[in-house]
Amino acid sequence: MSLLILLFGILLLFILILKKINPMIALIAVAIITGLLLGMPATKVMTSISNGIGSTLGSMVMVLTLGAMMGKLIEDSGSAKRIVFILIRAFGKKNIQWAVLLTGLLVGIPLFYNAGFVVLIPLVFAISATTGLSKLYIGIPMATALSVTHGFLPPHPGPVALAGIFHADIGKTLIYGLALSIPIAIIAGIYFPRLIIKRDQAANLQDFKIDEEENLPSATRSFITALLPVFLIIAGTIGSSFKFDYIGKPLFVFLADPTAALLISVIIALAVQKTSIAKAMESCAEGVKSIAMIILIIAAGGAFKQILIDSGMGETVKQLTGGLNLSPLLLAWLITASLRVTLGSATVAALTASGMVLPLIGPGAPPELMVLSVGAGSLMFSHVNDTGFWMFKEYFNLSLKETFRTWTMMESLVSVLGLVGVLVLNQFV
């Protein structure tokens, strides 16, 4: 009966989202209704919601906020454009897909998906117009790179939220995520579009021009500011992983904390800005505003997650799946993928699944790999109930059939390859 109630709750959530109800409101309402139907007293339901919001945001709100500030500073300073120009010159027209893919990975790490897409899409059009290559041939590598970083790499909202829920080490999650992201991005972003798109297809675009005479920051400053958070977290994780004590270990432990790494990165980015501090502070404020609703949706997802935990639903799922002889990592992916197809939002699907699969964490399913497994599942089969689907369709002026053939297939490929990669990593960690 409890599973039927859960299915009803998920169906209700799906209907509310289809009716254009804000996902935060939908998640909170469904969390309350589901908790009451599962027999929880009203006071306990509201306590669980408060605890879920507090525990979810408490572990990640500063990471998300500082990450948004960092991304907006990089965007407004022109560092993202400088990185693109450098890579285009380095790779040339013949290998332009590799340049765009690498750009997406570099720029996508500090930027949220929607922001990264909006920042890079004019450059994709400009490259397409300049080289005469199909905009999809150039654009799919960019979208793949942003999708991969969105699903697997902190400081994006999904991985950070899941790491907090699963009590996973963010540094290890980032390292494992990088190990997955690079080969997956190459397969789905380079070889997949070459199979489905003719390279010499006419661009059919307006006459965009790449203007390198803009007042852009230097290459060194661009790369340092864009990648500094990642380098600090990785260095801190490696330096603090040694079992023995040494003089500099406390410093590495400090750097491994994503809040500390991002705070240092934001301070350095502010220090090297050519604009005034007042204008840089405006960029920081705009960055935070851009993710305010994302944070609220994550908080509401945390509330729904807590209802599932406190009602015993996670244990029910664990008992029912105990005899299936499936890897917990595979099961987590299947549950998340099902929710993704149903609900549309990758973040909502991941957070909803987290409360169901949390009890599955154990010796055969390290928390860091559970984060990546759920992250992979959250990218599965993006279709008409996903805003990313429509963004890709409208920007590239595609029909529904063409969008399914390109965007949906690419997302599904990334998801399945992510699952395979997680299962392979599990044999070595």
Q: Please give the domain count.
A: 1
* Strand-pairing-aware structural class: mainly alpha
Q: Give the helix level as a range of percent.
A: over 70%
Largest sheet: none
Q: Unreliable segments (pLDDT under 50, ≥5 consecutive)?
A: 200-210
Keywords: Cell membrane, Membrane, Transmembrane, Transmembrane helix, Transport
Transmembrane segments: 55-74, 95-113, 174-197, 218-239, 251-271, 291-309, 329-353, 365-384, 404-425
Protein name: Gluconate permease
Pfam families: GntP_permease
Quick description:
The chain has helices at 2-18, 23-37, 42-58, 61-77, 79-91, 96-108, 113-131, 135-152, 157-166, 170-196, 219-240, 249-256, 258-272, 277-310, 313-321, 328-343, 346-357, 367-377, 387-395, 400-425. The protein is an all-alpha fold. Belongs to the GntP permease family.
List keywords for this structure.
429 residues, mainly alpha, 20 helices, globular, membrane, transmembrane
What's the structural blueprint in terms of helices and strands?
Layout: H1 2-18, H2 23-37, H3 42-58, H4 61-77, H5 79-91, H6 96-108, H7 113-131, H8 135-152, H9 157-166, H10 170-196, H11 219-240, H12 249-256, H13 258-272, H14 277-310, H15 313-321, H16 328-343, H17 346-357, H18 367-377, H19 387-395, H20 400-425
Helix pairs in contact: 1-2, 2-3, 2-14, 3-14, 4-13, 4-14, 5-6, 5-11, 6-7, 6-8, 7-8, 8-10, 8-20, 9-14, 9-17, 9-18, 10-11, 10-18, 10-20, 11-12, 11-13, 14-17, 16-17, 16-18, 18-20
InterPro entries: Glcn_transporter
Subcellular location: Cell membrane
Membrane topology: Multi-pass membrane protein
